[in-house]
């Protein structure tokens, strides 16, 4: 062995190290020989020997540097690349060991996806350095999309290691913003690879479908996890080829075949799961599978027949039966009424063929108006079978009939849908009622199996559901666990009035645990409302001040609520959008008051959008008049500095009690917002606040508004120099808190004086004032009826 092994000089190197150790201690050659002789060893009694053999040190495993080089290389190869490179800095023996380890075993796989965390950020320099240390022996390279490495750089790495590289995994980032490949870049990577290359796992985005893309998707070497195709004019042949490629990419059996590729160390570790069973050649974890996970075919002119063909392709890739009409599920024929013994196999995706089923697909077919109700019925069959995880049919002409078909799929216990978007489909109140009923039935069916509902996101914007549809959704939430895990609800532009707002507040916002007396308090069937709702969007609905008051009353009554039998859920709502809902200053003030109720549903709101609600016109409608004193003779005229100290030139034009009541409402609104415990982002744009409203807001800064709100939006509010100066003075007083990071004053009538006051804060860097120097409007002279004339100017 010593004559054939390339590491035969290792024992000699270790003897030299021991010689240097003895010389460092100042020992002569005679002393070293005496230390090695058995006569110089310490003598122990039999009892001491037994105790020493039973000590923890005797049971310790041998050190890594004492293992054979090939075994040590395999152990170190399981570490992340950056940790692997730092092993040479542990000690001298490890440094010598790292120098002599075989690079084809130590650097055969560079997995930066597994090594990236909060303490280590992958970038181009780290990847390039690790690839350089691999010495051309690298076989597998995995790079996350968050690293920000360009595709051209990855192609260069493939070209430099074409003799050894077999696999490249370069998926996009988790948020889907970076890391997509184009068909041209995929072609460049395949051209740069060598003859040993076996797999290119990437995410592809294409505007339109070309012949090169279809050929790449049909290639067994290219594995696509996310396919994003938009604005494609597809012919009949192209659609057929594309759907065949989708079926192949969805096939888990095809993903497990590596075309003769050698297994990576990560795959070898994942072959055996927690139960010890073999999980195939492609790795045991879902994250290691290269099956198609996300499919986007937006604006591709798909019709009902195309949706049926797509459903057949997805079912064929999942190993299902495509016989019969597209919306037909053979599972429903075999099990018309699934009981506890049979239904447990299908709802969670668990069945006899679970090892061959791909994970649920995220499907986006938005902006295909020709899809219609027939296409929705075809896709609904996949939803009922559990093949779809997220579904977007926005602007697809679904209508009431399509919404009814989707509702039937939602009622199936096999539905595992997490997100549903059917906005801009004019489903109406009947369609919304059908969806609500389907969600309730599905929640009850899953509750019988001991399972919660799966829907976390529901988008029903621009569907004209009205108060009736909103009431149906509220009823489903109140009488079932349909919204038990719902985190995001979007119902904008639906004509929801005060009655719908009141029903929503009572049944969805005010969440708790209900049900029958024989139900356990924390069972899936006992959950009511939306206890984990984080985001609620209701902008563009005519709620009015009455609807806002109804929401505030329901939230105020829920504060400190609950009992041992029906406890209230912890407040979870963080984002509330009520833009353009005709609240007025009184409605906005009522909502702000509900936000300061301890333990209330609105007490944890951190982002509040109250833009375009006529707050200024109803609560701060002060007309500008440059006079020293008021001359109404009532003695009730008050100066603005009574409630806005930074301003001393603005005065109310009348002294009627209504005006002062509205002014008091605006002051109450700002005071409540300043006392909101969790508010961090506030949007008051498009409210015509003017200088008077800006002064009232500035006066709330010392009360806590400047210390709590980090982002304040006041764009398009007709704020002039005096309002800007008041805000600048308020910022100076709150400069020590450092909470205000962004103040948006775009599109206001700010003059040179106001810009000069704000420029000091921008130069100091204490607040990032986001404003446009271009003034869209300037205040004109006072008219005889004491109104304000805004004159448009060209900059």
In brief, what are we looking at here?
The chain has 795 residues and is an alpha/beta fold.
Query: Portion of residues in helices?
Result: 40-55%
How many H/I helices? 31
Distance between the termini: 86 Å
Give the overall shape, derived from the CA principal axes: globular
User: Rounded to an integer, what's the Rg over CA atoms?
Assistant: 34 Å
Low-confidence stretches: 1-13, 256-288, 321-353, 513-522, 620-661, 770-795
> Structural class, judged by helices and strands?
alpha/beta
The overall average pLDDT, rounded, is 74
Structural commentary:
- It is built from 31 helices and 22 strands.
- It has 795 residues and is α/β, with parallel strands linked by helices.
- The strands form three sheets. It has an 18-stranded parallel sheet. The protein has a two-stranded antiparallel ribbon with strand order 12-13.
- Helix 13 links the parallel strand 4 and strand 5.
- The longest helix is centred in the middle third of the chain and has 21 residues, at 428-448.
Give the SSE map.
Layout: H1 10-24, H2 29-36, H3 46-53, H4 56-59, H5 69-76, H6 81-85, H7 92-100, H8 103-106, E1 109-111, H9 112-115, H10 124-133, E2 140-142, H11 151-160, E3 167-170, H12 183-192, E4 199-207, H13 211-218, E5 222-230, H14 236-250, H15 252-256, H16 265-270, E6 294-298, H17 304-317, H18 330-334, H19 340-343, E7 361-364, H20 372-385, E8 388-392, H21 399-410, E9 419-421, H22 428-448, E10 457-459, H23 466-479, E11 488-490, H24 498-509, E12 512-513, E13 527-528, E14 535-537, H25 544-558, E15 575-577, H26 584-595, E16 607-609, H27 615-619, H28 657-675, E17 681-683, H29 690-708, E18 711-713, H30 721-733, E19 742-744, H31 752-764, E20 768-770, E21 777-779, E22 790-792
Parallel strand pairs: 1-2, 2-3, 3-4, 4-5, 5-6, 6-7, 7-8, 8-9, 9-10, 10-11, 11-14, 14-15, 15-16, 16-17, 17-18, 18-19, 19-20
Antiparallel strand pairs: 12-13, 21-22
Helix pairs in contact: 11-12, 13-14, 14-17, 17-20, 20-21, 21-22, 22-23, 23-24, 24-25, 25-26, 26-28, 28-29, 29-30, 30-31
